[in-house]
Amino acid sequence: MRTLLSIPLLALLFLANFISDVGAIAIDVNSTDSVVHAAWVFAHGMMTYYNGNQTGGAQGKFVNPYYWWESGAAWGSLIDYWYYTGDETWNEQVQSSLLSQVGPNNDYMPPSEATSEGNDDQSFWGFAVMTAAERNFTNPDSSQPQWLALAEAVFDTMAARWDTSTCNGGLRWQIFPFNGGYDYKNTISNAGLFMMAARLARFTGNSTYVDWAEKTWNWTESVGFLDQNYYFYDGAHVETDCTNITEYQWTYNPGIFLAGSAYLYNYTGSALWGQRVQSILDSMTIFFDSTTGIMYEQACEIAGTCDVDQKAFKGILANCMGLTAQLAPFTYNTIYQHLAQTVPGIEQSCVGGTDSVTCGTTWLDVGWDNTWGLGQELSAMEVVLNLLVQNVPAPYTSSTGGSSSGIAAPVATNGTAITTADRAGAGIITSVALLMMLGSSWWVVL
Ligand SMILES: *[C@@H]1O[C@H](CO)[C@@H](O)[C@H](O)[C@H]1NC(C)=O
Ligand SMILES: *[C@@H]1O[C@H](CO)[C@@H](O)[C@H](O)[C@H]1NC(C)=O
Ligand SMILES: *[C@@H]1O[C@H](CO)[C@@H](O)[C@H](O)[C@H]1NC(C)=O
Ligand SMILES: *[C@@H]1O[C@H](CO)[C@@H](O)[C@H](O)[C@H]1NC(C)=O
Ligand SMILES: *[C@@H]1O[C@H](CO)[C@@H](O)[C@H](O)[C@H]1NC(C)=O
Ligand SMILES: *[C@@H]1O[C@H](CO)[C@@H](O)[C@H](O)[C@H]1NC(C)=O
Ligand SMILES: *[C@@H]1O[C@H](CO)[C@@H](O)[C@H](O)[C@H]1NC(C)=O
Ligand SMILES: *[C@@H]1O[C@H](CO)[C@@H](O)[C@H](O)[C@H]1NC(C)=O
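Structure tokens predicted for Glycoside hydrolase:
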């Protein structure tokens, strides 16, 4: 169990209700209390967009204009919020929300999202339940699916979609052929598979996942979505065999590959994964302003064209940087510096709205830019929260404190685990039964 907040800190949080009217949050990066207070303000800001408790509200997800993936990202960030601060305010909400979207097969494929769910969307819910397992977040009661089992099911369903029919492999963006984007293979979907594989490898110690992570990295590189500068591009269409690459660079793509590589480095101890962590981190300077060091979404922020999704990407990057600083400690100083240099940008941006603490999209030195939303609050929250990585243990594994259980092996009615031989036997029996059925219907037709 994590320790609860100290009494003075609770008093501070309580006070914050009043002083927030005054506007502007001063964030002292050297004071844990100050950083925790800022994280609380932004987490609270995030939750103002949740309407599940209002009459007619949607349980477990943030609604239009937020696509479903962003709810997964938001609940995952609130697990980290609790883990870093000890504040349990939203824990019950997070648990019930994560369980509300699992779908009939416990794999985050709810029929309600079928008209738009892509591999990337599914993976963000996968990251959230992986975070729950790694942070030893309260396990659901035994009648409910467990965090690790959900994460495994997300991985299994995604891996089964590996598609060699075009571009020599990779995942498509969309899951269902009837959705626009099924003809596109993109970096984020493959980043999702890579990250799930890397985290499951470290958590479970099963090397099959390492093979999958390597295979996904190899493909991303061979198709050119990752180049020799360690830049990650958006994706390409299958009609031209992924040769015509869309060259947008979004913060979350290198972010997820960075963190995934850090998990693999931490688990395998391999110098190659360590080198990849360092190389991606070096390439990321393009996402930090060259004079102030403030993080920005360079593909859309200056032009003011970031869409609703893109406004959350900096939060994903910050989350991934924090994980990396924990799992590959040689990156800590660089990562801490990137995050700390971004804080003044957040301070001067998050002065908007009727509460005077609403964050804008850009943190470059322009004041509040008159935008607001879940992505803006999530991004600010993740940056300040990840200043605290040294205060908490790194993600647990199943052998260091993660208590979540995975997909159980099928058990015979007498309680003995079914072996492969039993399954082969059962398969033969099924086939014989099938042949007999076919035989008898053949006879009926005759
Ligand atoms: C935080 O502490 C470091 C090292 O002690 C110092 O260099 C830095 O100026 C401090 N930052 C602030 C905002 O006080
Ligand atoms: C919504 O209601 C549930 C159940 O009463 C509660 O656990 C949760 O904290 C509430 N969420 C918010 C955001 O107030
Ligand atoms: C390792 O993971 C793979 C992929 O999910 C699975 O098929 C295999 O059974 C696992 N092996 C063990 C020993 O659990
Ligand atoms: C990935 O590529 C490396 C270098 O070419 C190769 O040694 C390795 O076997 C590949 N891994 C997989 C799983 O394809
Ligand atoms: C390549 O993609 C761009 C848009 O990203 C498009 O304008 C161009 O026509 C495409 N070229 C080919 C040869 O498909
Ligand atoms: C893995 O992470 C732990 C926790 O931060 C750290 O103590 C350990 O040194 C890391 N392993 C490697 C190979 O860096
Ligand atoms: C993880 O949670 C389990 C179940 O609540 C608990 O028994 C265990 O002590 C926790 N582990 C850590 C490291 O906190
Ligand atoms: C339990 O069932 C398994 C699978 O049907 C069988 O192989 C095994 O012998 C049984 N064990 C006992 C103790 O009856």
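The longest strand covers residues 184-186.
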